[in-house]
Specification:
Blueprint lengths: L1 H43 L2 H11 L6 H36 L1
């Protein structure tokens, strides 16, 4: 009987410790994401970068030069922001995996 009680105590201690470390890992990853996302959003998702799309949605006609300039800006932004976007996507996957 004592062995069973000690075994249950030992098992529950490891279970609780595992949950705490899991919660700590999730919190650490979420905190890291929350630190890294705002600069990314400011640099890569800024309205200035999407103003061309807004103008097209309102029906404003763009000249071929304006369209070419927007395409060039988009390619430059995508090349500059892709590594950080990939990093944030990886963090999101790690958060989801840690929550399982």
């Amino acid at each position: 009987m004592r062995i069973l009680a000690l075994s249950l105590l030992f098992l529950s201690t490891f279970t609780i410790a595992g949950c705490e470390s899991k919660a700590e890992k999730v919190k650490k990853l979420v905190d890291q994401y929350n630190v890294e996302y705002p600069p990314y959003a400011k640099a890569c998702l800024d309205e200035d970068m999407t103003s061309g799309a807004s103008r097209m949605l309102t029906g404003e006609k763009l000249t071929p030069e304006q369209t070419a300039a927007l395409e060039a800006k988009k390619k430059e932004r995508d090349a500059r922001c892709k590594p950080e976007a990939d990093r944030l996507a990886q963090l999101q996957k790690e958060i989801l995996a840690a929550q399982q």
